[in-house]
Write a structure and sequence with these properties.
The protein is built from six helices and ten strands. By secondary structure, the protein is of the alpha/beta class. The chain binds glycinamide ribonucleotide (GAR).
């Protein structure tokens, strides 16, 4: 079984989906540790309830991004993970951090990348009048929200949608596709090579919708 460490900053509903999928055998792995940069993140309670080791590493106690990320690497590596999963971890990572976990660092981003990198993705999709929005799971590289996409899912945008309506619709898809991708990795079917995601020896196009 692969050892998975999950990084969070908030509610942790994706963390919950991953823990649940490990529990039911839909992921051939185990969440062995959770690290949050926010002390009162509800995801910590979810980890606690599931009996998963968890800890807070607050960025506020560090004078630089480099110093924080170095300590974060130390925390994570104590769990000897095979895979590190960002699940609503709302921090920009240093190149050193990203390189340390090259090829074994996944992120989920609430937009159809390369559209809407960064924050407020749901409101931006509404403001642009998009009829379709969605979510992307990708390998993390030094380019912010720019690493190779593994899997995307689309949702419709309705005329009366608020950002939170849309976020809720996207979350349902997140909870479906993140466990799928994590399981591919745990089954040794998914790798990154030369900035491309490879599944079962086939390079994945950027429009691999689930
Ligand atoms: C998710 O929607 C995820 O896509 C997003 O944060 C939310 C976390 O929800 N991630 C980002 O915006 C990364 N820049 P959760 O805490 O309930 O899993």
């Amino acid at each position: 079984k692969k050892r998975i460490v999950v990084l969070i900053s908030g509610s942790g509903s994706n963390l919950q989906a991953l823990i649940d999928a490990c529990g039911t055998g839909h992921i051939a792995g185990e969440v062995v540790g959770v690290v949050s940069n926010i002390a009162d993140a509800f995801g910590l309670t979810r980890a606690e309830n599931a009996g998963v080791a968890n800890q807070v590493l607050s960025h506020r106690e560090f004078s630089s991004r480099d110093a924080y990320d170095q300590q974060l690497i130390q925390c994570i590596d104590e769990y000897t993970p095979d895979l590190v999963v960002l699940a609503g971890f709302m921090r920009i990572l240093t190149p050193e951090f990203v390189q340390h976990y090259q090829g074994k660092l996944l992120n989920i981003h609430p937009s159809l990348l390369p559209k809407y990198q960064g924050l407020n993705t749901h409101q931006r999709a509404i403001d642009a009048g998009d009829e379709t929005h969605g979510v992307s799971v990708h390998f993390v590289t030094e380019e912010l929200d720019g690493g190779p996409v593994i899997l995307q899912a689309k949702v419709p945008v309705f005329a009366e949608d608020t950002a939170s309506d849309l976020a809720e619709r996207v979350h349902e898809q997140e909870h479906r596709i993140y466990p799928l991708v994590v399981n591919w990795f745990c089954q040794d079917r998914l790798t990154m090579s030369e900035n491309c995601a490879i599944l079962d020896n086939e390079p994945l196009a950027e429009n691999g919708y689930a």
